[in-house]
Specification:
This protein has 16 helices and eleven strands. It is an alpha/beta fold. The chain has two domains: 267 residues, Rossmann fold, CATH 3.40.50; 77 residues, formyl-coa transferase, domain 3, CATH 3.30.1540.10. Strands 3-2-1-4-5-6 form a six-stranded parallel sheet, sandwiched between helices. Helix 1 links the parallel strand 1 and strand 2. The protein is elongated, with a radius of gyration of 25 Å. The relative contact order is 0.13.
């Protein structure tokens, strides 16, 4: 039995943070029901690129497939009174609601936490927003770049004396939002075992991004010195923790942060004279970085990687994305999946990223393909007790 079996999640989110969070719940056995509006549903269904060999159009977006396995889909017009009635009946039988609207949207529909907990006191209601449910920014529009900018994370990314640079992934959306929401939901479920009651979980991606500053903020609180981009030991300011280009143009990551790893690196490149310069001042680091770059420029990346196998130091190739899913460690850890999906009786194999949470007794399972838009609407309504005539009437009236 998977750890989340018996838990039903109503997921009203779309695009990236919310679906990423709820997919974890589905991977571990939760019944995740995507509650999608009746106009287009989750926007990610329609984003390019598309899988060209899928038979149905509304679920072949690579973006959507990557984030929505192990879920069901119901189309529901929450502005219609009958749609609200259906949602309330779903709430009675559910454990978790996850939504990503701006504060007040669900309250205005009459479906906010206070209204729903009156129906089901055990419901856990998680609101995942940019700035949280209160404060001067609560209704301000934003994206990952904005949360990182306000949090100070963006200001630390980039080269010395250069402009701030964006990371290749959405840090605030995923680490600051989705994973914080996942943690909040699991903590609320644990608390419910003790109290018998649910609660409201308020997750702000800005809060999550600020929390990721723990190490740098701690140092700042200690000595009052602001961390600056390209000048820290972990963001490019030091030679021992940096990226270098090999003779063939490929990049190599050197992570010799501890003294023992730096000493081993220096021995490996026959430059033991550099050992005592590891933690020299920033002005000297610029010269040291150039010296290390000159060293790496003498051999191709493959030659360096083979050479460093004999030494206990932290040297790796900077993989391009296509190489990630050929990497032997990534493959061994099952972080690359090729899952079968049955479409109109034909089996197709879809490539996906695996789950990073490895559990010995209850490992994650891929139990269901990403749902077609509204695929399970009629079955879910039937399970709620609506008869065929009532379901047909709702369909005719635009409730789904």
């Amino acid at each position: 039995m998977l750890p989340m079996e018996g838990i039903t999640v109503l997921d009203l989110t779309r695009l990236l943070p919310g679906p990423y969070c709820s997919q974890f719940l589905g991977d571990y056995g939760a019944c995740v029901i995507k509650v999608e509006d009746t106009s287009k549903g989750d926007y990610s269904r329609w984003k390019h690129p598309l899988f060209t060999d899928f038979v149905y159009d509304d679920s072949r977006s690579a973006y959507f497939v990557a984030l929505n396995r192990n879920k069901k889909s119901i189309k529901l017009n929450l502005k219609a009174e009958k749609g609200k009635e259906v949602f309330r009946r779903l709430t009675e039988k559910s454990d978790v609601i996850l939504e990503g609207f701006r504060p007040g949207v669900m309250d205005n529909l009459g479906l906010g936490y206070d209204a729903l907990k009156a129906i089901n006191k055990r419901i856990i209601y998680c609101a995942l927003t940019g700035y949280g449910q209160d404060g001067p920014y609560k209704n301000v529009a934003g994206h990952d770049i904005n949360y990182l900018a306000i949090a100070g994370v963006l200001g630390m990314q980039g080269i010395k004396n250069g402009r701030p640079m964006l990371a290749g992934i959405q840090i605030a959306d995923l680490a600051g939002g989705a994973l914080m929401a996942l943690s909040g939901i699991l903590l609320a479920l644990l608390a419910r075992q003790k109290t018998g009651e649910g609660q409201f979980v308020d997750i702000a991606m800005l809060d999550g991004a600020v929390s990721l500053l723990a190490q740098h903020a701690g140092n700042y609180f200690g000595d009052g010195r602001e961390p600056r981009r390209g000048e820290l030991n972990l963001n490019g300011g030091y030679a021992c923790y940096n990226v270098y280009q090999a003779k063939d143009g490929r990049y190599i990551a050197l992570g010799a942060l501890e003294e023992k790893f730096w000493a081993e690196f220096c021995k490996a490149v026959q430059r033991e004279d550099l050992i005592d310069r590891q933690l020299s001042g920033l002005d000297e680091q610029d010269a040291l970085i150039k010296e290390v770059q000159d060293i790496f420029s003498t051999r191709n990346s493959g030659e360096w990687l083979e050479h460093f196998k004999k030494f206990d130091t932290c040297v790796t190739l900077v993989n391009e994305l296509k190489e990630v899913f050929q990497d032997k460690q990534v493959l061994h850890r099952k972080m690359y999946l090729k899952e079968p999906i049955c479409i109109n009786g034909q089996e197709k194999f879809v490539e996906q990223v695996g789950t990073p949470i490895k559990m010995s007794a209850t490992p994650a399972q891929c139990q269901g393909q990403p749902p077609k838009y509204g695929e399970h609407t009629r079955q879910i309504l039937k399970d709620l007790g609506y008869d065929q005539a009532a379901i047909d009437e709702m369909s005719a009236n635009g409730v789904f």
